[in-house]
């Protein structure tokens, strides 16, 4: 199944300000990944081309990295996820910047079911929470994306599984 999933946010800040925040991705002082609510994005030796890492059960490697323009990851797991996801920064004007997250993949077999019934909703919420976190770095009135019923249900099931004794 072809999957093209795009999230965009316009930030009323110069590109260099937004780029500085993207540079914190997967660091101790991460200002974009919503690690307060979601599994933390981790890379053993930091983000650089060829580095392997991920978050939760999702694994990928850094395929392209220009900290002022793009970070592109290629999926390694789960099986059946064949493609990439990336963050891009585009200057719209001197004081307006677009940050865009694109997931572009083909799913096969079990990967298609995992995407449709589980990961898609979780992914959408995680990315919106991350874009809220980034934008909130510049705002007094903080944004908070709302989670729908299905997402809250999935999160509850995940928490039960996590807390279940072996």
The backbone outline, from C-alpha atoms, is globular
Order of helices and strands: EHEEEEEEHH
CATH class: Alpha Beta
Binned, the helix content reads: 25-40%
CATH superfamily assignment?
START domain
What order do the strands of the largest sheet run in, or round the barrel if closed? 1-7-6-5-4-3-2
The stretches of 5 or more residues where confidence is low (pLDDT under 50) are none
**Gross CATH architecture:** 2-Layer Sandwich
CATH topology name: Alpha-D-Glucose-1,6-Bisphosphate, Chain A, domain 4
For the secondary structure, the number of strands is 7
Count of individual helical segments: 3
Name the structural class: alpha+beta
Number of structural units classed as domains: 1
User: Whole-Å distance between the termini?
Assistant: 35 Å
Distinctive features:
166 residues; alpha+beta; 3 helices; 7 strands
Describe this structure in words.
Helix content is 30%, strand content 35%. It is an alpha+beta fold and 166 residues long. The chain has a single domain, classed as Alpha-D-Glucose-1,6-Bisphosphate, Chain A, domain 4 (2-Layer Sandwich), CATH 3.30.530.20. It has a seven-stranded antiparallel beta sheet with strand order 1-7-6-5-4-3-2, with helices on one face. Helix 2 (110-136) crosses helix 3 (149-163).
């Amino acid at each position: 199944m072809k999957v093209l999933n795009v999230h965009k946010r316009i930030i009323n800040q110069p590109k260099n300000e937004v780029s500085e925040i993207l540079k914190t991705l997967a660091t101790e002082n991460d200002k974009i990944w919503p690690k307060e609510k979601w599994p933390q994005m981790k890379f053993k030796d930091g983000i650089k081309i060829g580095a392997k890492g991920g978050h939760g059960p999702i694994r990928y490697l850094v395929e392209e990295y220009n900290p002022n323009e793009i970070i592109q990851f290629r999926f390694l797991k789960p099986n059946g996820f064949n493609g990439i996801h990336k963050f891009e920064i585009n200057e719209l004007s001197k004081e307006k910047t677009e940050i865009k997250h694109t997931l572009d993949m083909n799913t096969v077999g079990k990967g298609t079911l995992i995407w449709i019934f589980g990961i898609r909703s979780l992914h959408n919420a995680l990315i919106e929470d991350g874009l809220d976190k980034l934008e909130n770095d510049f705002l007094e009135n903080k944004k908070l994306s709302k989670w729908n019923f299905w997402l809250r249900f999935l999160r509850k099931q995940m928490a039960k599984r996590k807390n279940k004794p072996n």
